[in-house]
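Internal ticket - ligand job 468, 6-O-phosphono-beta-D-fructofuranose:
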Amino acid sequence: MSRLIIVSNRVAVPDAGSKAVAAGGLAVALKEAFNAYKGLWFGWSGKITENPSSEPVIADRGRVQYAVMDLSPQDHREYYSGFANRALWPIMHYRLGLAAFSRADYAGYQRVNRIFAQALAGLIEPGDLIWVHDYHLIPLASELRGLGVSNPIGYFHHIPWPSGEVFNTLPASTELLRAVSDYDLIGLQTDSDVHNLSRNLVDELRAIPLGGGSLMVDGRRTRIRSFPIGIDVDGFRQAAERAGMNRTVRDTVAGLRTRKLLIGVDRLDYSKGVPERMEAVERFFASNPDQRGNVVFLQIAPKSRTEVPEYEQLSRDVNEVLGNINGSLGEPSWTPIQYVTKAYPRAVLAGLYRAARVGVVTPMRDGMNLVAKEYVAAQSDDDPGVLVLSKFAGAARQLPEALLVNPYDRFEVAEAIRAALYMPKAERVERWRPMFERMAREDVDWWARSYLGELEGFRTIEREPPAA
Ligand code: F6P
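stdout (C-alpha cells):
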C-alpha cells in the first residue's frame, strides 16, 4: 500500500495509545484519505521553543505516523504571524488595507519552508504521494524539488485566491506565483479562484494554457482545478440528532423559552464579518420593533491569532459594537445579542445549529465556509431552519437555495433575516432539501477522493533532475 504524506502548518498529534486520527477540521477531512493509504502527517507541532531541533519528532499512531517540528519565537513571529497572517491572509481575502508586508517576515516564511523541506525530504520514500495544505506552505514544493524530490506533490489552498489586481500588490507576488506553479496539482475551492490564479499566471509569467486546467509555466506543467471541500454530512447530522441530550444545548433551548434563535459561529477573524453582522441584526430590530424580545442572536466567536494586531483591534471593535447594541436595545428581560468567545465541541455546535431558526453566515470573503454546510447538515428534515449566506463565501456556489446576501449591505442582511424568520415551512423544506442532498453527494470523502484520484495521475510523469 502506498503512502500519503500530508503536510499542514498545524499538526495535532493524538494522545499516545490512541490510534485515532486527531480531531479538528483538516483531520476529520482527511480521515477517509488515511483509510485508503498508510499515512505520514508532517508540520508544526504548535509549540514555540528556543533553538528547536532540525529533526522532526516522530510519533506512531496506528496507520498514521506524525512528524512534527517546533518553531523558534522568531520563526513563529515572521513565518506564521508575520508573512502568513499579516500579508498573505489579508491579501487573499481582498483586504489590502489590512495587509502589512515586511521583508524580514518574508525571509522568515521562506526560511521555515526551507527548514520544513529539509526535514521532510529525509522521510519521503519513492512511492509516496505528497499533499500540502494551506497558504503557509506555498514555497514547499520548490524547496522539495530543489532537494531532488520527484514524487507527485499537490497543494490545496483552503482560502480564496484573489484576482491579479489584488494579489499582485504583494511585493513577493511573482515569486509566489512561480512557487505555486511548482506543484503538480493546485486545488482551489471555486471556479472563480481557478480563473483568478490561471489568469494571473498567464498575465504575469506568460504561462501557456494546455486545456483541461493544465498550464505550462516556465517549462513546467501544472494543473489547476476546483475541488470544493465538503463536510462529514452523516456524522454531523447524527451529532445534531443526539445533541438534545447535551447539557449546554438543553439549557440554551430552555433559556430561549418561546424566543427564536439566530446563530453565527466563527473564528474571531475580520474576514468573517462579525461586527458587520451585529450591525445587520441591529438594523433588523430597528425596522422590526415587534420582534424585540422575540428573537435572540447568539454569536459564538473563539478568539484567534491574538498576537496579530489586526485581530486585537477586531476584538475591541466587536466589544464596542456589541456593547452599543445591547446597551441601546436591550431590556432587563432581554439581551438582543449573546456573545461567547469560548470554543465548543462539535456535538454542542450541532445541537445549537439545530435549535436555531436561522443560521447567519455572512463572511466578507471566505474560501468555502464549513459553518454554512454544518448548519444545513444539522437541520431536521421536517422542520429545517433557513441559511442566510454571504455571496462572497465559496459555499454559496454549492448552496444557491440559501438566502444569498451582500454582507457589506446591512439593510439587505436585515431583510434576509426577516424573510428567514417569516418563511413558511413548505418553503424552508423546499430550499433545504436540495442543499442537503448536494452536500451529501459532495461530502468530505468525495473531496479527498477526487483530489487524490487526480494527484495519482502524476505518478508516471518523468521529472528533470534539479539544476545543480
Ligand atoms: O482556513 C485556513 C486555516 O489556515 C485553516 O487551515 C485553519 O484551521 C484555520 O485557518 C485557523 O487558522 P490558525 O491555524 O491560524 O489558527
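Auto-summary: The chain has a mean pLDDT of 94. The pocket of 6-O-phosphono-beta-D-fructofuranose is lined by residues 10, 25-26, 134, 158-159, 304-305 (CB under 6 Å).
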